[in-house]
């Protein structure tokens, strides 16, 4: 029975009740999206490592992944936030399982860390949103903690902070790796990040299996010390610190994969003599016991400017296989190719060339997975959704805009699922993509 307003307003209580109901309605309209969508969290387990392979719930786990570094940045603004769900849903529909994205923005617009130890709660809630949304879509996240490059602050911003405070040892960007004050800045950031309690799910980051793992730094280089000792010391120190707080998640360095000055492969596999003088070394940096898996990037357009496509494809096959062999025989750890891309600025570029490039990487990963070897996954750089042209570079794509590219990516998801089995989060999507996969 519906009561009239007069009946409900007996003894003058109508207006307080109406006001309370209006308040509830406003709260629901403001935050109901979180309540409705995240009230029932999907069950997830932590990804683990067993020798040269990743495991999940006792089975093998090989990854078809992608990069969308911009997720937190877009989640911070109301009008761009829907792109986060759109991208993660699209990734899930392609059978992808892990997205690599930034968990940093130091100084500047939409900064997470405004200054050392000072955070913008609005932006932290944006990262909360990304993690909660990824969990809802069955996608795990590989979160990078800082940038070697200037974009989104990076080590340049840390050095600037220390210099402005009058405590920096040097204005050189490489002092990020050896300055004691800057190391304290970074460790404080690591601790804040890992112990953050998600405002949506209530789960601390260090306890959330939605996070596949952590990456210390994107593409570290320390060219002022080509011996590699400075960077090696930093990796050892920081990886131990991460593990002292978070023993549940996997950890990688974030390397490009270049061989150092003492490596026999510096002249046979490196793309040039310059690559051995960057202060990093794939083998040495990845051998550290607190590093769980190795990482490699693949950018032949940055490394070679006069080669034709066929020459580049031949080289990157050698590059990729070499690192898998290293991890099979020497490192005894999984390796992930966490960035790979082909530029559309190449002379006479055609999208089909990018498909050829992707296929070389995918075929090598599939072959390694089929043999239960260390080639554990690959991540295209980068995927975007419509309306993001200003965030694109010469490598980014909207996968569903080109059917042949989309089919290539989804076919790789199907092939990996045939090796490892279909994950619970993939069942509905892979039924349509690859009906023969069980």
Structure overview:
Its EC number is 3.2.1.78. It comes from Rhododendron griersonianum. With 438 residues, the protein is an alpha/beta fold. The protein is built from 15 helices and 13 strands. The chain has an eight-stranded parallel β-sheet. Helix 4 (82-93) packs parallel to helix 5, helix 12 runs parallel beside helix 13 and helix 13 runs parallel beside helix 14 (403-420). Mean pLDDT is 90; it is low at 1-39.
Provide the descriptors you would attach to this structure in a database record:
disordered N terminus, Glyco_hydro_5, GH, hydrolase, 13 strands, 12% strand, 8-stranded parallel β-sheet, membrane
Question: Which secondary structure elements does this structure contain, and how are they paired or packed?
Answer:
Blueprint: H1 5-8, H2 14-38, E1 48-50, E2 53-56, E3 59-60, E4 63-67, H3 71-75, H4 82-93, E5 98-102, E6 113-115, E7 118-119, H5 121-137, E8 140-144, H6 154-164, H7 175-178, H8 180-194, E9 211-215, H9 229-245, E10 250-252, H10 282-286, E11 294-298, H11 300-303, H12 309-331, E12 335-340, H13 351-370, E13 375-380, H14 403-420, H15 427-433
Parallel strand pairs: 4-5, 4-13, 5-8, 8-9, 9-10, 11-12, 12-13
Antiparallel strand pairs: 1-2, 2-3, 6-7
């Amino acid at each position: 029975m519906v009561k009239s307003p007069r009946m409900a307003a007996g003894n003058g209580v109508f207006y307080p009740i109406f006001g309370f109901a209006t308040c509830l309605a406003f709260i629901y309209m403001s935050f109901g999206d979180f309540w409705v969508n995240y009230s029932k969290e999907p069950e997830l387990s932590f990804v683990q490592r067993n020798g040269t392979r990743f495991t999940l719930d006792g089975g093998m786990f090989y990854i078809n992944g992608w990069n969308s570094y911009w997720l937190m940045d877009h989640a911070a603004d109301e009008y761009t936030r829907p792109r986060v769900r759109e991208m993660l849903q699209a990734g899930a529909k392609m059978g992808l399982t892990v997205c690599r994205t930034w968990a940093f923005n130091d100084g500047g617009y939409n900064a997470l860390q405004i200054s050392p130890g000072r955070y913008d709660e609005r932006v932290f809630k944006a990262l909360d949103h990304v993690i909660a949304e990824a969990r809802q879509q069955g996608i795990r996240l590989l979160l990078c903690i800082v940038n070697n490059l200037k974009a989104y602050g990076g080590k340049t911003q840390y050095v600037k902070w220390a210099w402005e405070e009058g405590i920096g040892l040097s204005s050189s960007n490489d002092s990020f790796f050896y300055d004691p004050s800057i190391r304290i800045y970074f460790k404080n950031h690591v601790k804040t990040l890992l112990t953050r309690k998600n405002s949506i799910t209530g789960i601390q980051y260090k306890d959330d299996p939605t996070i596949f793992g952590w990456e210390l730094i994107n593409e570290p280089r320390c060219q002022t010390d080509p011996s590699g000792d400075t960077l090696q010391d930093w990796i050892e120190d920081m990886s131990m610190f991460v593990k002292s707080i978070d023993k549940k998640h996997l950890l990688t360095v974030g390397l490009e994969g270049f061989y150092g000055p003492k490596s026999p492969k510096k002249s046979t596999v490196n793309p040039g003599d310059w690559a051995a003088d960057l202060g990093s070394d794939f083998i040495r940096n990845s051998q550290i016991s607190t590093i769980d898996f190795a990482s490699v990037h693949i950018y032949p357009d940055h490394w070679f400017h006069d080669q034709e496509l066929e020459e580049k494809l031949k080289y990157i096959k050698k590059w990729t296989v070499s690192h898998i062999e290293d991890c099979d025989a020497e490192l005894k750890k999984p390796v992930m190719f966490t960035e790979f891309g082909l530029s559309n600025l190449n002379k006479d570029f055609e999208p089909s060339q990018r498909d050829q490039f992707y296929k070389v990487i995918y075929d090598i990963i599939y072959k390694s997975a089929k043999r239960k070897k260390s080639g554990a996954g690959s991540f295209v750089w980068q995927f975007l959704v419509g309306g993001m042209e200003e965030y694109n570079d010469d490598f980014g794509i909207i996968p569903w805009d080109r059917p042949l590219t989309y089919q290539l990516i989804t076919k790789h998801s199907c092939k990996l699922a045939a090796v490892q089995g279909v994950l619970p989060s993939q069942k509905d999507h892979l039924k349509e993509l690859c009906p023969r996969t069980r």
